[in-house]
Amino acid sequence: MHKFLEYHIYLKKRSILGSIYKKFFLYPLLRLLLGKRYIDLGCGIGKMLEFSPKYSIGLDINEHNINYIVKRKLNAKLILPNGKLPIEDSSYPSLICDNVIEHIQDPIFLIKEIKRVLPENGLLIIGVPMKKGYLRDPDHKVFYDINKLKKLFCEENKFSLNYYFYLPFPFSFLGKFISQQTLYISLKNNK
Q: What's the rounded Cα separation, in Å, for the pair 140 and 119?
């Protein structure tokens, strides 16, 4: 079976507890932080798009995910084969990239594309798994902690740090024990 199809099927089989957490806590919170008009980069099957269906857009490399989202009457586009995002420059005020960059060995081109589609002072939220979640997926390529994220985004790519937080619990040490524990960092785009 093609790996993109396998991953699409995997995403549709999330646990009931995980689905409840995302639908009633995580996605409403992230939507509140992002505002109503945002890009969900690496959108999977589009669950985050349901929280602003008229104004948000999902981008993904998986054509099965994009077709599934479009059939559900949500806005989504396939990332171009060369990695370019099919979005105009400075066209969305916020972007979320949740549990994506750890799958990419060298995310510099992706970060440049994010900078391109966000306006100056645009909001970027990055989510990455903590240690236990990182080790759970053999497709993960780079482990990020807060220091590594600050270096990559603030020092090397000229974003400004707004704040960071941990979910579902507000403690970083739980990332050693709970695979769902995620680090989120909020950044401002400096052109």
A: 29
